[in-house]
Amino acid sequence: MTTTTQAPAAQAVALFEELTGHAPAGVWSAPGRVNLIGEHTDYNDGFVLPFAIPHRTYAAVGMREDGRIRVASTFASEPVEVSLDELTTLFPTATGAEPAVAEWAAYPLGVAWALQLAGATGTGVDIAIASDVPVGAGLSSSAAIESATASALNDLWNAGLDRTALAQIGRRSENEAVGAPTGIMDQMASMLAEPDAALFLDCRTLDANLVPLSMTEAGLAILVMDTRVSHAHSTGGYGERRAACERGAAAFGVPALRDVSIADLDRAAELLDEVTFRRVRHIVTENQRVLDTVRTFREKGPRAVGDLLVASHVSMRDDFEISSPELDVAVDTALAAGALGARMTGGGFGGAAIALVEQSAVETVSDAVTAAFAASGFTAPNIFTVTPAAGARRDV
Ligand code: ADP
Ligand code: MG
What we know:
Blueprint: H1 8-20, E1 26-35, E2 47-48, E3 50-64, E4 68-73, E5 80-83, H2 87-90, H3 103-117, E6 124-131, H4 141-156, H5 163-178, H6 185-192, E7 197-202, E8 207-212, E9 220-226, H7 237-252, H8 265-271, H9 274-300, H10 306-320, H11 325-336, E10 341-345, E11 352-358, H12 362-376, E12 382-386, E13 393-394
Parallel strand pairs: 4-6
Antiparallel strand pairs: 1-3, 1-13, 2-7, 3-6, 4-5, 7-8, 9-11, 9-12, 10-11
Helix pairs in contact: 3-4, 3-5, 4-5, 4-6, 5-6, 7-9, 8-9, 9-10, 11-12
Magnesium ion binds at residues 140, 142, 186, 233.
């Protein structure tokens, strides 16, 4: 049996061998991500600034000759197996419906389906997955499983798709096979990120530029504070926020809120009801904050971006209303304990917050947040530092 003490790459290989009785053809991996700034801007055709974290999802993959695809994960008790021809009868998942297979299996099977729709063909495959990306923490374990699978099948099926195209395959799986209406940010970060840099992404054009972060040289660290309150993308608040954004864009007669500027906000206040106005104001100001953050990194370095992170959190808390008591305690406590900036990251309603801290203050800030969670009666948070890591790759 596989054990949790192994690194996830070895776990994936062990699971593959347990499943098939032979060695995999290769191992591919892709990272989770932290978004530095630019939240809910991706599906508004706006800007985001994520980086990949060292936590990765590994897919050990081998060919089979019978045209069937089998996926297994250390997270699931049972593998799921279907014929490649059957994928088009399983997907797309009807709007609002559960996938016709176990939900976790819809992520990798949806990738195979989306690759088929993009013209890729190949033999059957066995896929064994293991990961150390926290699940449901807003660190995008979903993009990690999609990107690892897409990279593996792209190679084994000789599909020849580039990284941006593979990110779109992953998004299609998540949107249409799983049924979670998420934007393109997570998959682009997982596919294209590079060490020590963030990915400045224009979600309309998919134009991606690396921004060097130089955190370590500056004596700084990024702390992830996982509240261990899981979010649920496919239901509730996320869809409601998307709908509000669409209403806002429609009121302006533009394709997306990307096309509304800060100067337009006075008019937005007249056009929109109070709640929709605040949703729109978050997106419009957040887009500007991403641009300001990129410029600040380039002109002044990482020490200068703290206030932008804080302004982003306040906007998500008060205007977009996607924070939670746990996220607010994490952010407020980190700042009070000396963090230069802090904000919730990811879709919201739980998940993780980040803090920009002096390396020398990592322990003080972590201890303060842990103590504040205990005092508030919250589940103990999972707190760790991350350094910007590499995007998807073939490992073996
Ligand atoms: P997040 O991306 O923030 O971690 P999501 O809700 O978007 O949260 O995705 C989490 C889901 O992705 C899990 O519930 C599971 O269905 C699937 N998933 C992620 N990683 C794995 C894995 N290693 N094995 C199986 N399923 C996984
Ligand atoms: Mg996700």
